[in-house]
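hey can u check if this looks right to u? its 283 residues, i copy pasted from the old doc so theres a chance i mangled smth
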Amino acid sequence: MSKMPEYIHDRMGGQLDKGQVADYVIVPGSQNRIAMIVSHWEENRMLAHHYEFLVHSGTLDGQPITTCSTGIGGRSTSIAIDEMASLGAKTFIRIGVTGGIQPDMAVGDLVIASGAVRMDKTSEHYVFLEYPAVADIEVTWALIAAAETQGCNYHVGIGATASSFYAGQGITCFDGYRNSKMNSIASDIQTANVCDWDSETATIFTLCSLYGLRAGRINVIVDDPDTGLYNPIGEEKAVKVVTEAVRLLMKWDKINLETNQDVMLPEYPRPIHDDNNESGGDK
């Protein structure tokens, strides 16, 4: 019996080699979003096109950067994360589209995930359900800072990752099909203060935490509640925010390396000292 390769997809069908994938990888679901992402780089080239996985690498501010589409859902997303990680990726940022769950959300708003409800099913094969799907705090800070500098409307909170677009989100299926379990999904998720739905975030967060890698996620709300149609007005804005977030992470990582610190701390008020109490504590 022949020996199975270490990675079944064998580095995206044998199209990739070590050194071609950067530390920073932007992971959209759709291949179509790749062109929008790489338009913000100085240069790029396609390295692989393997099933739903389209991989480009290039430079941003002179530093290497990669983007890899994941396809839809946890199964293909886990392949992308494993493949990119095996080739040296260390930081993943998902960019996707979504429908807002909370009433204060509007089309074009951005949703930055601090964590995800693990309804993806795929992550259950990796670790027990009690293990949380959480974003890396530094990547989350970078996304928030980028959204602020771009003047975007954004929300930060927990998303939900479903394994089924229709039944898994309580949406009526073909020919009116519903079952009783579907009836409470939408209201339960909204009551739990979950921000939005997608099909990939929980898988990415879980795998990256297990592998000791960083991950973050930003979605843009495209489901228009007034028309029921897809409205892409915020997609370019989301791509700009992701690009700026990677720039910040590159800068912070360089500072962390030079100063021998683990994480870039946000600015915060310094303790108040007086002449009689240099420690700043109570007298």
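The beta strands are 24-28, 43-50, 53-60, 63-68, 91-98, 110-119, 133-134, 154-162, 197-198, 214-221.
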